[in-house]
Amino acid sequence: xxxxxxxxxxxxxxxxxxxxxxxxxxxxxxxxxxxxxxxxxxxxxxxxxxxxxxxxxxxxxxxxxxxxxxxxxxxxxxxxxxxxxxxxxxxxxxxxxxxxxxxxxxxxxxxxxxxxxxxxxxxxxxxxxxxxxxxxxxxxxxxxxxxxxxxxxxxxxxxxxxxxxxxxxxxxxxxxxxxxxxxxxxxxxxxxxxxxxxxxxxxxxxxxxxxxxxxxxxxxxxxxxxxxxxxxxxxxxxxxxxxxxxxxxxxxxxxxxxxxxxxxxxxxxxxxxxxxxxxx
Length: 280
Prior knowledge:
- By secondary structure, this protein is mostly beta strands.
- 12% of the residues lie in helices and 55% in strands.
- It has helices at residues 3-17, 23-28, 35-42, 276-279, and strands at 50-62, 67-74, 77-81, 86-100, 108-112, 115-123, 129-139, 152-164, 167-180, 189-200, 205-209, 213-216, 225-239, 242-255, 263-273.
- The chain has a 15-stranded antiparallel β-sheet that branches.
- Residues 4-32 and 276-280 have low confidence and may be disordered.
């Protein structure tokens, strides 16, 4: 799959997920919350806020030739009000990947990795501890064996966080296990956690650390864990009358499989949408 086709798939996917939304209508929607309030809200994975994040992860120093991989995650978040007391927050992550062949210096494989879908059932009005629980499902959208497993997998997912003044900290965690498909290939058995800590400044600026920690239980001993350390900063900024969340982060993998990336540069942009746009 070449770069133009990958780009086209990502653009078409966004349009299909939100077919009834016109940019003129979005521009006319008044945003009543301050940038700092929106920054804290978007740091809550189960907030009652629609967002369309694009997260680009560039991984450096892979293998003996120090190759570079790239993962563009298209990950829309859509909350659904079930009752006055409960919300269902759906999160879909579609990875568009450039995977290098570590045996060479220039060969790459482009395509899609497995899609992950999560749905968190969360109280509409939480106390000091905000939480959500639900399933995490791996969908085999993989287009090439080099880009990940081709099996269905599922398991529990949980999120918990708290907001104390300018601080927002918590974690998302899930464990997915093979349930069907690809009986001849490797079977998924992966633990994922994304702890996060944010310190909010004025005018929508914030400091953040959100490492993506992964344990592949099917890997050989010594190659199971990926543990990054690092962080960065971000800002909620009005662009064309609409709020966007922008962030830049860098992480060193202090524990990594062999072969694995030495470090990662992460760039994210997310369009934040009030739910009223979709209910008119």
